[in-house]
Amino acid sequence: MTFDSETISIDDFEDVNDYLYRREMTDGLPVVPPTAERVERMLEGTSREPDEELGTIPPKYGVATVEKIAINAVMAGCESAYMPVLIAAVEAMTKEEFNLYGVNATTHPVAPMLVVNGPIVEEINLNYGYNVFGQGYRANATIGRTVRLLLVNLGGGTPGDMDRATHGHPGKYSFCIAENEKKNPWDPLHVQRGFGEDESAVTIMGVEAPHEINDHVNEKPAELLTIAADVFATVGNNNSHHTHGEICIVLGPEHADTIARNDWSREDVQWFLYDNARNELETLRTVGTTDNYTWHHRFEVENDDARIPLVETPEDVTVVVAGGAGKHSMALHSFGETRSVTVGIDEEV
User: Fold this and answer.
1) What is the DSSP string of 126-180?
2) Are 110 and 196 members of one domain?
């Protein structure tokens, strides 16, 4: 097989890693040397042609070909079966509405998070249960890591250069989960967004690190979600003052069960958080968000007691069910100037 990418001859594992690290082509961790043989095996995971272009990765605007994805997937430690997820993820994050330029270059601590749904989750053993945001599963770790390597190697997202994140967060190494569809009392995320239950899809969101919602006491949806709303409603996050943001709540299965067995729908969750995850206009004015940012384009009110939602509509609250046992959920604020995107996964090889 002939490749478009440049080839070099370095035999030693440590020397390869030193070469790539010095050229700022890694995430700082050791990588698997992307030899021609390994890249060929990775490409066996897709029927797409190696030179097919899927989009460009800003701010450097390198072209994301199937071959380039395979090279970075090798470096990250992927199996070839992960290629359909990676191809869909690249197609999703290069959509205009996701605003990958902003996500990859901002000072904000944002990272692309992947949520995978459908049959492929079991096929490649993606974690959706205990420790879903943590370590332990090759598919989650290496798929998420490949996305980061693409942002570095094709997008130029080197810290301090084109990646200007003031602090970043650990999800910038890897940020990939699956939804716990077995414990989801409602339609899974990809079905909500128009796909069939027997189809696979990936949703990409530009979000901050997860923040815990701890409630071991309440057995009523409104009480539980009041705590969640309080976690979301702070004036320091981008959703408090940007115009196009979304928020995401990742409900632990026990919290989801508490809500659903009280006959609350997913839409009820969205409406409750829209109505209650709010800040008073007077508070927003005190910290200057109404003057310095774009909040005032959303809601034209003057009453200081008015409570301003974090998002424009209830549909901007994304509800995901994931995790293991335990009365915990997670709140994720977004970059603010980004929209989540869901793309179908083509599993044909």
Assistant:
1) ---STTTTSS--HHHHHHHHHHHHHHHHTT---BTTTB--SS--GGGT--EEE--
2) yes
Report which DSSP code applies to 243. Answer: S
163 and 56 co-located in one domain: yes
> Is 82 in the same domain as 226?
no
Long-range contacts of 18-26 (CB under 8 A, 24+ apart): 20/75, 24/152, 24/158, 24/161, 25/152, 25/153, 26/75, 26/149, 26/152
Average confidence score pLDDT of the chain:
93
> CA–CA distance from 35 to each of 83, 268, 317 (Å)?
17, 51, 43
% of residues, the chain, pLDDT over 90: 82
Residue with tokens 């959303």: 298
Give the domain extent around 169.
Answer: 1-208+339-349
Between residues 332 and 285, the one the model is more confident about: 332
Asked whether residue 41 carries a pLDDT value surpassing 80, the answer given is yes
pLDDT in tens, 93-139: 999 999 999 999 999 999 999 999 999 999 999 999 999 999 999 99
The helix (run of H) or strand (run of E) holding residue 93 is helix 83-93
Please state the domain count of the chain: 2
Same domain as 235, residue 202: no
User: Residue 280 pLDDT more than 70?
Assistant: yes
Domain co-membership, 185 together with 198: yes
Q: What is the pLDDT of residue 16?
A: 93
Q: Which residues pair with 203 in a beta bridge?
A: 115, 342
pLDDT for the residue numbered 9: 84
What SS3 state is found at 220? Answer: coil
Q: Same structural domain for residues 346 and 323?
A: no
Are 98 and 125 in the same domain? yes
Residue 245: the pLDDT is 85
C-alpha 220/C-alpha 218 separation (Å) is 6
Instruction: Identify whether residues 1 and 126 lie together within a single domain.
Output: yes
Q: How far apart are CA 60 and CA 77, in angstroms?
A: 24
Neighbours of 233 (CB within 10 A): 23
